[in-house]
Amino acid sequence: MDYWRKLAIASNLILLIWFLLDMTGFSIGNSVLVTTAYREDGIFFCIYLIAFLLFIWKYGFWKYILIAWLALWFTTQFYFHWWVTLFGPWEDKMNFFSHTIKLIPSSQIYIPDLYHIVLHLLILVALIFTIVFVRKAEKIPPAVEETGVARER
After folding, report:
1. Long-range Cβ contacts of 138-144 (<8 Å, 24+ apart)
2. Residue 114: pLDDT above 60?
């Protein structure tokens, strides 16, 4: 269980650091990885930061809040980035993200930029590791009698 707790905390910490780039903006030379978006995303950053810190500090109820937040966040990211990639419309998204670093450049359809591809993967990894940790932590071993034989429930 300690192993999965470390993975859950580490993956959420890496996600938090990556998301912090969205608050500050980050460029590599003349290429923009992500623009400063604290006005648009600041409240989401604060909610995630608080949920993550309370998950570490209090754990109990907050494990469910963190899982719910990660699931909701992944769902909204999927909708606003990959749904548009699959079904359109692409023009507004392509124009908005035209100056960012592209892993897969396209002039035909919108494909999320490098920052958002990594963000989506990190959210998914943090969500999976957090769920696995919580499930393993809540797993109750079968009752064992004095004989050492597990009782049937």
Report:
1. none
2. yes
